[in-house]
Amino acid sequence: MKKIEKAVWDCYRQLYKEATPSADFDELFENAPMEDGKKRIDYMAYSLDRKKYEEIIDEYEKKVPKRYQRGFRFEMYLGAGPKSV
Q1: What's the gap between Cα 74 and its chain centre?
Q2: 35: three-class secondary structure by DSSP
């Protein structure tokens, strides 16, 4: 697994661990239904305070090579993370 992929997955794990309700991201992904050939996690069922969301992303972004940091942030905000409130 590449460094950026590991950071993305680890960040998702932390985001869902801190979310309300708390969840195991690996379990959510494994049990997610397939739609259009992709796994779909019901991310709207989980929420996380916006400030905490940003703190977690900032922590994991440091583990990503500089040239990928902007893409990492896009993935975290527009990908499969819980909704931020």
Answers
A1: 11
A2: strand
Q: How far apart are CA 61 and CA 6, in angstroms?
A: 11
Question: In the structure encoding, which two tokens stand for residue 69, read together?
Answer: 């940091």
Amino acid at 63: K
Please give the model's pTM, rounded to 2 decimal places.
0.91
Residue-by-residue pLDDT tens, the chain, 85 positions = 688 899 999 999 999 999 999 999 999 999 999 999 999 999 999 999 999 999 999 999 999 999 999 999 999 999 999 998 8
Task: Give the C-alpha separation, 57 to 8, whole Å.
Answer: 9
Length of the chain in terms of residues written: 85
Alpha helix positions (H), 19-82: 25-31, 50-61, 69-78
Residue 11 belongs to what H/E stretch? helix 3-18
Q: What is the DSSP letter of 62?
A: T
